[in-house]
Amino acid sequence: MSLDLKDYNARWLQCWTNKDVDGLLKFYAEDVKYYDPGVPTGAIGHEALRAYLTGLFGATPAMRYDPEEIWATPNGYCGRWYCVIGNDPKAAPALRGFDLVVLKGDRIVLNEVYVHELKPGALSGAAG
């Protein structure tokens, strides 16, 4: 079975947008290692990731994650995305992020997230 990485990434980011903890956990292996700026020492395993995501989603406003580009790696992919904060569909992205995703089959075993804040107007005229 060949995994369509672009589709996989889009569905996964939609779960992030929806703040769907149970949906997200279906993408992650039971023994996942997850790192982002909010948990730099890692959330290891489903229960730790569930606790982290539940707190994160409860403390943050609506956030829409729009996939931009992915690059396949021998064991997963790297993906860049933009994040709009709030519910304004015309708002400019406030964040640009990059995920390292290591897969075992169709489950994420390692996810490292890197995020950059964007200044208003930062993307106008940007080539990508």
* Portion in helices: 25-40%
Query: The CATH topology, please?
Result: Nuclear Transport Factor 2, Chain: A
Written as H for each helix and E for each strand, in order along the chain, the element string is HHEEHEEEE
Which radius of gyration do the C-alpha atoms yield? 14 Å
Keywords:
single chain; 128 residues; globular; 26% helix; alpha+beta; six-stranded mixed β-sheet; Nuclear Transport Factor 2, Chain: A
Describe this structure in words.
With 128 residues, the protein is α+β, with helices and mostly antiparallel strands. It has a single domain (5-116), classed as Nuclear Transport Factor 2, Chain: A (Roll), CATH 3.10.450.50. Helix content is 26%, strand content 45%. The protein has helices at residues 5-18, 21-25, 46-59; strands at 28-36, 39-44, 63-73, 76-85, 95-104, 107-117. The longest helix is centred in the N-terminal third of the chain and has 14 residues, at 5-18. It is globular, with a radius of gyration of 14 Å.
Task: Detail the topology: elements first, then pairings.
Elements: H1 5-18, H2 21-25, E1 28-36, E2 39-44, H3 46-59, E3 63-73, E4 76-85, E5 95-104, E6 107-117
Parallel strand pairs: 1-6
Antiparallel strand pairs: 1-2, 3-4, 4-5, 5-6
